[in-house]
Amino acid sequence: MKDLDPMVFVAVFQEMMGPLMWMLLALAVGGLVAFAAVLAREGRLVSRRLVRSEIVGVFGGFAALALMAWVTLSGFSDAGGPVDWLLVGIIWGAGLVGTTILAYAVQGLVAPDRGHGMTEPQ
Amino acid sequence: MTGITGPLSRRTLFKLSGAGAALLAASPAVAAPAPPKVASKARIVIAGGGAAGLAAASRLVERLDGASITVIDRRKDHYYQPGFTLVAAGLKPRDYVVSTTTQYLPRGIDLIEEQVAEFDPAGNAVVTDTGRRIAYDFLIVATGLHLDYAAIEGMDTALIGKDGLGSVYAGPDAAVATWKEMARFAETGGVGLFGRPATEMKCAGAPLKYTFITDDYLRRHGNRGKSELIYCAQNKGLFSVPIVSEKVRMLFRDRGVKVAYEHVITGIDPGRKTATYKTPGGTVEMKYDFINVVPPMRAPAAVRQSPLGWQTGAWAADGWMEVEKATLRHKRFPNVFGVGDVAGVPKGKTAASVKWQVPVAVDHLVADIAGTKAASVYNGYTSCPLITQLGRAMLVEFDYEDNLTPSFPGVIAPLEELWITWVMKTMALKPTYLAMLRGNA
C-alpha cells in the first residue's frame, strides 16, 4: 500500500453500507452532541447514571462482537494471533464506549430533572 | 449489512475497512489531488466490460473531457469473481456475485453489447461478432481470459455438480453446483482431488483455498479420518512465490493433505470417477469421490489469433498480450493497453492487480493525449486472502519479484492464519471492489 486517501474510505463505506452509513454517522454525531449538551447543562457527570450507562455499555460491547460474528460468518473463537485478539478488544471496546455515551445521553435527555437528584454527595 | 447499530461498529468498520482497502488499494493515482480534465476528441475503445474494463471506463470519464469512450461486451451480467470461492464454500448465495454491467457504467460511455471478434491493431480498429468495424485512437483490451475446459478430455461443464464433479471457476451456477457436491462429499468422505493447470491462471490461491475449505468441512462432519485429500501441483511448488509455497507446504502437512507434484490434469472420466494426469513418469490415473477441476486458461480466441499476443517466449502459445509490465502498454502497438487477466505479465490475474493496473494504464493513456509523460508504474502487486480454514485466512501480498509486500507490516503478518484477514475478505473486499469499478478506489 502506498497511499490511503480518506475519500477511498468514504467510497468503500458507501458501497458497504449504502444509506446506512449516513444514518450511523448521524447517530454517532447526534449521540456525541446530546452527550455534550447533557454534560454542559448539568455541569458535571452524574455518577450513578454513568455507572448504569457503563453496564449497558458492557452489553453493547458483546452486541458488537455478535454483530461482527454475524456479518463475517465467523467469530472471535477463530482468532489466531495477537492482532486478532486486539481486534476483538477493539470491537468490544468500541461497542462499550459507543453504547455508554449513547445510553448516558438518552438518560440525560429523557430524565433531565432527576439528574440533579442522583449526584453523588460531595 | 442491515443490522449494524450504533457508533460501535462504525469505528470497527473503519479500522477493518482500512485494512480491506489495503488489499485492493495502493493506487498512486488515487491519492493525488484530482488533476484537471484533459480536453480531447479521442476515440477510446475498451474491449471487455468486466472488472478491468469498467474500472478503466470510470477513470477515463473522470480524466477526459469530450472524448468518445466505448465499452464492448456482450454479457449483461457482471460477476464478482473473488466471491466465487465463498459461494462454492456455501457461505454466500449466488446473488452475492451477480449484478449487471450497466449498474457500474458511468454516464457518457457508449456500451455496445457485442463481442470483439477481431483485433486489427495495425488498422486501429476492432471488429465485433456482428461484423461491425469500430475504429479507435486508443484501445484498452480488458477481455479477461478463456477457461479452456475443452482441453481436458472428457470434461463437460454441464456435468459440474454431478457425481462428485466440481469446478468453481465456470461461473456463479457452477460455484453453487460445486458447493452442493462438496457438501455431499463432506458428509460421506472419500478421495478428494484438487489441483491447478500448468498455464497462467487467475487467482492461483483459489485452488489452495478450496482444498483447505474442503478439509475443514470434512473435519466438521467428523469424516476427515476416512478421507484422503490430494493436491496435484503442476510443478514442484505449491505457489509461485517461494516463501508462500513453503508455508502452504507446511500447512498441507499439518492438515494431512497429500501433494502430488508435477501432476497436470489432461482428462476426466465422470462415469468412472477417474482423472488422468500427465506426470514426468507418464500418464497417471487417479480415482476420486470429489474433484475440483481447474481448467487451463488462455487469452480469448480473438486476442490469441490477433497480433497482440506475445510472439515468443512462455506466453506466446496461450496468446497473452505482449505489454510492458510496468505500464501495461503494448510493446509493438503503443496506442494499445492490456489490463486485467489478458495482460501477459508475470503476476497479477486478480482484482487486486486490476486495482493498481488500471490507474497506471489510464495515466499513460491520458498523458499521451495531453502530450505529457506519466511516471506511474505497476510493480506487479497482487493480493490473495488465502483462506486456510473457515474463519481464518493468510493475507498474502506480493510483487513481480516474489517479494512479500504487506500493507500492514508488523500488524497483520502475511504468513499467519488470522481472523482479521478473514474479516477483511468477507466484509471489506467486495465494497472495495465495487468502489474500484466506479473509479472511486
UniProtKB/TrEMBL annotation, chain A:
<protein>
    <submittedName>
        <fullName>DUF5368 domain-containing protein</fullName>
    </submittedName>
</protein>
<dbReference type="InterPro" id="IPR035308">
    <property type="entry name" value="DUF5368"/>
</dbReference>
<keyword id="KW-0812">Transmembrane</keyword>
<dbReference type="Pfam" id="PF17336">
    <property type="entry name" value="DUF5368"/>
</dbReference>
<feature type="transmembrane region" description="Helical">
    <location>
        <begin position="20"/>
        <end position="39"/>
    </location>
</feature>
<keyword id="KW-1133">Transmembrane helix</keyword>
<feature type="transmembrane region" description="Helical">
    <location>
        <begin position="51"/>
        <end position="73"/>
    </location>
</feature>
<feature type="transmembrane region" description="Helical">
    <location>
        <begin position="85"/>
        <end position="106"/>
    </location>
</feature>
<keyword id="KW-0472">Membrane</keyword>
UniProtKB/TrEMBL annotation, chain B:
<dbReference type="InterPro" id="IPR015904">
    <property type="entry name" value="Sulphide_quinone_reductase"/>
</dbReference>
<dbReference type="InterPro" id="IPR036188">
    <property type="entry name" value="FAD/NAD-bd_sf"/>
</dbReference>
<protein>
    <submittedName>
        <fullName>NAD(P)/FAD-dependent oxidoreductase</fullName>
    </submittedName>
</protein>
<keyword id="KW-0732">Signal</keyword>
<dbReference type="Pfam" id="PF07992">
    <property type="entry name" value="Pyr_redox_2"/>
</dbReference>
<feature type="signal peptide">
    <location>
        <begin position="1"/>
        <end position="31"/>
    </location>
</feature>
<dbReference type="InterPro" id="IPR006311">
    <property type="entry name" value="TAT_signal"/>
</dbReference>
<feature type="domain" description="FAD/NAD(P)-binding">
    <location>
        <begin position="43"/>
        <end position="159"/>
    </location>
</feature>
<dbReference type="InterPro" id="IPR023753">
    <property type="entry name" value="FAD/NAD-binding_dom"/>
</dbReference>
